[in-house]
């Protein structure tokens, strides 16, 4: 890993087969040229159990990060899809806030800087004015939890209309008005949203100026949001990264998935090379100029 970079490029954990331990994933991320790992806490029971990680495992993971000189700088918290902050059932709300608090405590213990939140009031149910009201109320509580532990929360711009743009995310950032709540946009998702609304990704990104904590770098094609190989879609990596750099963003994560390929280790390195070319050109005037 090159020291003293002007930016950091993280690797989304799900790019690595799930049978690898977190420590093995740290090693693989480093070997592939990434600067850090983004941990996933999704809606599966296996991943949700991480928020109850025993103290001994937390200490072992910290020791491994120090020994490997490889950090977990961010957590993608999508477990709220199953237990949403805006659910009308009070028991479900309590569960969502419990997940939030435990995830923040885990982040604090591991030295994680940023938690990416899924931008949904509800996911498996139909949202309405009431779910939005509940979402805002519980979001305010979540932001207070984050401020207590000094962990940043950032909304991911999603694939549904509730929060598929930075502008929509900023409605809630302003309503909550807490410095520990910002936006963690996915530029691939934003590109698809720009087609729906006949807009421009960079124009939308500018609506979050001063509140963007990091960015997902993902490839998409119209109507498809996942598992699109880098370089085969329509995401405007260099154009978007140039603006993000000017806006002060320095944390980026390559978001892609392991899909069963036998060449997954090579895929990690190829993704790193693809994204580094774009980032290095913007930050250093080097690399791929496309």
TrEMBL record:
Report which superkingdom the organism of origin falls in: Bacteria
GO molecular function terms noted in the UniProt entry: intramolecular oxidoreductase activity, interconverting aldoses and ketoses; L-ribulose-5-phosphate 3-epimerase activity
User: Which InterPro entries is this protein grouped with?
Assistant: L-Ru-5P_3-Epase, Sugar_Epim/Isomerase, Xyl_isomerase-like_sf, Xyl_isomerase-like_TIM-brl
User: Signal sequence span per UniProt?
Assistant: none
Q: Which UniProt keywords apply?
A: Isomerase
One GO BP on record is: L-ascorbic acid metabolic process
One Pfam family here: AP_endonuc_2
Parts of the chain that traverse the membrane: none
Where does the record place the Xylose isomerase-like TIM barrel domain? 26-277
Give the matching NCBIfam families: hxl6Piso_put, PRK13209.1, PRK13210.1
Q: What is this protein called?
A: L-ribulose-5-phosphate 3-epimerase
